[in-house]
Structures are given as C-alpha cells and as structure tokens.
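Morning!

This is the sequence you dropped in the shared folder:
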Amino acid sequence: MKLKILGCSGGIGGDLRTTSMLIDDDVLIDAGTGVGDLSVADLTKIDHIFVTHSHMDHVTSIPFLVDTVGWMREKPITLYGTRETLAILHEHLFNWKLWPDFAQIPDPSRPVLRYQAIEVGKPVTLGGRRITALPANHVVPAVGYQIDSGVASLVFSGDTTTNDALWEHVNKITNLRYLVIETALSDRERALAIASKHLCPSLLADELAKLTLSPDVYITHLKPREAELIMEEVFARVADRRPKMLRNNQVFEL
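The structure's back. Tokens below.
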C-alpha cells in the first residue's frame, strides 16, 4: 500500500496545498486543494473519501471532484465521516445553496455521491486496507485516522489539540511506523492555538510525551506565515523524536 501526500499546508499560495492524502489510487483521506493537481483520469479512480472534519481546507475539493467525474463513473463516490460531520456537510455545503446535493442526483436511487457514517474505533476494510477513525479534539466534531496495511500503520492526527483519548488508541498499535501530527501555530501564538484547538510546539511536546511507541514523526498543517519558526520550535522541543516536516508529494509505503 502506498500513501501519497497531495497537500499538507495550513494555507495556500505557490506550491502550498491544503490537507489531502491519496491511498493507492482509489482512497482519499481528506480532500483539500491538493486534489486539484490530479488528472481527470486519476480523479475517476477515486471511490472513497474519508474526512476528518468539515472545515473547508479539508473538504474544499469534494464538490469539484464529484461534479467533474461523478457522471463518468458507474458507481457513486462514498463519503465517510462521523454522523455529525456528514450532517454538517449536508446542511451547509451540499444544500443546493452552496452546491447541489449530489446524494440526490441524477436521482436518489442512483446518486453520484453517497454518505457512509463511521464511528471511532471501528475499522472500515477496503481491499485488505483497514482505516479506523481515532479521537480528535477540535472546534467542530473531528477524528484522526489509523491507516493499516496489515504490515504497518500510519496514524494521522487530523486537526486536534490536547487529546488523551488519541494516545490511548495509538499506544496499542503494535505495527505503528509513522505518525503524522499537526502543529499549526508557533508558541508565540499559543493562546490562539488553545482557542482554535490546534497544537503549537509546546503543546505538541506535551502530547508526544504520552506516546510510548517510537514511530517516525512528521509535522503537518503548518501555517505558511510562520512555518520555519514552527519547525525550529518543534526541533527544540522534541529533538529526541527527530521530527520531520511533511512535504507535498511525499510517499509512504506501508
């Protein structure tokens, strides 16, 4: 199994793309602006989209993806999320006001998009790949994900702040190879991180102290205005974890 990073920034501009990961060629984890770099042929292969939460930087490409290729496929694209997240997307995005309700067209019996509710801790198995929602602590209902090939696992925190429940799950993953965790803001914006329920380097250090395993650690969702500063502070706080900055087009093999 291969996982490619299509976007991992907390903003846009130049080569920056917001959060999205492609598993093999048919599964997306979030659908930020990086999805737009795929060809139409690549877009037609996407059967499943797992969303962490409803914020625009994580879902912005879903409407365009479905509108572009929905009629070029023989089956609907399945959108996975918690019941709360799916309800938000249906009410505020796919509501005929911002965008059509693709779960109802061309008609409800054969839509181009279907919703599938998921629950924390209950895996979805797709061709031998297990994708399990993990707890997140954000300003809207949110999850992270464990992506398990059977050989190795990658955990993506999603957008989150202090979150003891996450580590209760993660520390039980015996084949954990990679941890991708957000650190959106610098320590000089710690108050904003707390208010917006993101991590900053000092909060990240507190969280990683709860991790009993030793995966490779990658930092994601950095705000462009202070990305270099964030990484400097991360290195200073958790040097023993040898953290790396996640990059667009990076590929993980599991």
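Headline: The longest helix spans residues 227-237.

More detail when I'm at my desk.
O.
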